[in-house]
Amino acid sequence: GREMYLFRGDPRPQVGIDLDLYVAIRPHIGAPWSAPVDLGAPINSPANDQEPTLSDDGELLLFASNRDGSMMSPFGRSLDLWVSSVEPPGRTAMSTGIDRAMVRQAPVAE
């Protein structure tokens, strides 16, 4: 591929490690990767944004986040699955939480 999505943490005083999403691109396979570029808002939030993956067709970026809008747990906001459309080259649109009614449990391997 020509795009690689990743996450990394940057220390923030009194917050700890803040995880954000980045993209590195290359003009063609075999070329070196660019330096990672922060995807910025609205993809990255003040919360943790992590575990990016592209859909098979490359049109959706799925990632985990405990941003506002995520479910609450006894320990604070939980990591929920969020999705954003991808616009070339390496640009992303507004992210949205995935509707829980659309999520189906995967079969359990025996």
Question: Can you walk through the features of this model?
Answer:
This protein is 0% helix and 48% strand. With 110 residues, it is an all-beta fold. The chain has a 4-stranded antiparallel β-sheet, with no helix packed on it. 17% of the residues are buried.
Label the structural class: mainly beta
State which percent range the strand residues make up.
Answer: over 45%
State the total count of DSSP E strands.
Answer: 9
Uncertain spans: 101-110
Rg is 15 Å
Instruction: Quote the distance from N terminus to C terminus.
Output: 34 Å
How can the largest sheet be summarized? 4 strands, antiparallel
Q: What is the N-to-C order of secondary-structure elements (H for helix, E for strand)?
A: EEEEEEEEE
Q: Helical segment tally?
A: 0
Going across the biggest sheet, name each strand in turn: 4-5-8-9
Residues in helices, as a percent range:
under 10%
Question: Helices, strands, pairings?
Answer:
Layout: E1 3-12, E2 16-25, E3 37-38, E4 49-54, E5 60-65, E6 72-73, E7 76-77, E8 80-87, E9 91-97
Antiparallel strand pairs: 1-2, 2-3, 4-5, 5-8, 6-7, 8-9
Task: Based on the model shown, name its key terms.
110 residues, mainly beta, three-stranded antiparallel sheet, 0% helix, globular, disordered C terminus
Quick recap:
With 110 residues, this protein is mainly beta.
